[in-house]
Amino acid sequence: MHTSPVTLAEWLAHLETLHPKAIDLGLERVAAVKTRLGIAFDCPVIIVGGTNGKGSTCAMLESMLRQAGYKAGLYTSPHLLHFNERARIDGDMVTDAALVEQFVAVEAARGDISLTYFEFTTLAILRLFAQAGLDAVILEVGLGGRLDAVNVIDADVAIVTSVDIDHQEYLGDTREQIGFEKAGIFRSGRVAICSDPVPPTSLIEHAKAIGADLWLVGRDFNYSGDKQQWNYGGRSQRRNSLGYPALRGANQLLNACAALAALEVLRLRLPVGAQEVRNGLVMVDWPGRFQVVPGRPAVVLDVAHNPHAAATLAQNLDNMGFHRFTYAVFGAMQDKDIDGVIAHLKSRIDHWCLSDLPLPRAAGADSIRQKLLAAGVVPQEGTAAESTIACFATPAEAYANALNRADENDRIVVFGSFLTVAGVIEAQNRARSQDRSQPE
Question: At residue 432, does pLDDT exceed 90?
Answer without folding.
Answer: no
